[in-house]
Amino acid sequence: MSRTKLYTAIYVVLFVLATAQAVVEQAGYLEESYWLAFWAIMVLSAVKAVVVAGWYQHLRWEPRSLTTLMLLGLLGAVALTVAASYSIL
Of 36, 51, 58, 78, which has the fewest beta carbons less than 10 angstroms from its beta carbon? Predict the structure, then answer.
């Protein structure tokens, strides 16, 4: 039963983070302060990725080299997103 409570709590956390991202996108912050909204969405996305990877993909029990590989992938995704954002402006 405690596992159900844990997964429910993780679901609620992910739901709240996704809702916060949608609020940032829909509230019109992108026109006023693009970079503030950009970094808020990036931080929320990173937190969600860590929660999903840590609990649902069970990276806690994997070797550190695999965790490092995942972090390098995340860094690459952030770098590509930042590079693509310059073409939008």
Answer: 58
Handedness of CA 9, 50, 34, 85 (dihedral sign): negative
The answer, as to whether pTM is greater than 0.90, is: no
CA dihedral 71, 75, 77, 81 (to 10 degrees): 150
What is the Cα–Cα distance from 55 to 14, expressed in whole angstroms? 12
Q: What is the pLDDT of residues 14-67, one digit of tens each?
A: 999 999 999 888 876 556 677 788 888 889 988 998 888 777 766 667 787 877
DSSP at 14: H
Co-location of 48 and 71 in the same domain: no
Number of separate domains in the chain? 2
Please give the Cα distance from 85 to 15 (Å, whole number): 26
Q: What is the domain extent for residue 21?
A: 1-57
